[in-house]
Amino acid sequence: SAVAAMFEDTGIQQQQQQQLQHLDGFFPSADWPVPAELQNLNGHKNEVIQAEFSHGGSRLATASLDGSVRVWQLIHGAKGKPKLFWQEALPPLMVVAVSDPTAAARARQRREQAQALVINHIAWAADDSKILASASDNIIRVWCAHTGTLLQLLKGHSQQAHVLETHPYDARLALSAGYDGQTYLWDITTGVALKTFSSSDTIPLARGSWAPPVIQLCDGHFSPDGNAICIADVAGQFSYYAVGSPTPLLLSGPHDQFFKKDYDPIMHDEAGFAAYMDPPVPCYHLKGQQPLCDNQFMPYADEFQLAYREGRVLEFVRSGGAGMSLRGTCMTLPSSLQLWPPTVTAAVWKALEDRAALIAKGSSRIVSEATARVSIGVG
Questions:
Q1: pLDDT tens for residues 85-99?
Q2: Alpha helix (H) ranges present in 168-227?
Q3: CB-based burial, 178-216: b 16+ in 10 Å, e otherwise
Q4: φ, ψ dihedrals at 378, nearest 5°
């Protein structure tokens, strides 16, 4: 097959070849199709940072560093034109600074142009009736996707929000999360924040015990059924918000869960896969094989590891955890987590461990990569 011909029949590459065999079914012919440019969409004056298809697939929104969102419509071509092509459906949706009327009047008198803002993220409402964009002024804008009319300015974040997602079914709802540690659940039809969650509430100690007390939020999504929100932060945690009462089983798991090789150096192998340097195997090959560890990379009990590998952790917790002291019962956080979040603690521990190993081997080289991780985490 075409895929098989890409790899030599040796070692790791042979295993990767087997992993990719299923891709042949998508293209039954002997050769993969050669990519071809169907159309070039021109209009933006600067780099395009995001392109997002509507849920229906017939429209496309693109965001650029020129401070605009452009909406493209897929239409049937007239005679002599391509059968299908994209055409701009609306005037550009410009993201400009929101200022008070007095300042705006002064700017017009001085003939100053409004400065374009940087767009962080765009999203379509569930019914494709609205387009949302979060910008560098910490405001989320809501436009009508059919007319381009600005409908709402969602104000609440005190720092930039790089997480923006709409509800999978309810066209009224959207979530945003930002570097201010705040997660908002919005009603985009009224512009009202229905609920706010703070990352300071997710620190498993007294509020503000970590430095800084507010943790930046970097990713987040609705669950497929729309009944829950999962938010990830730069401290290495994810927070789970859902309707109903808290699930005791979710509260019972160990707070810090790392894989043994989480901070080991990685590289790209000959096929382009991320691979560990020691041993030189692709990272995905160890899926389900690495033990779950605490923040100092000490593996949890064998019973817990077995339950993890067999996919029955909840059953294990429900049955009492074989006497383990689980968080939510009598488990307290280790003293190493009293000052810093788990990822920083783990990075420090790994750096010290690697440095001690090098010194033991007579090497004076400092583990710069691990130290850099610590610096990034602390910053």
A1: 889 999 999 988 776
A2: none
A3: bbbbbbbbbebeeeeeeeebbbbebbeeeeeebeeebbb
A4: -70, -40
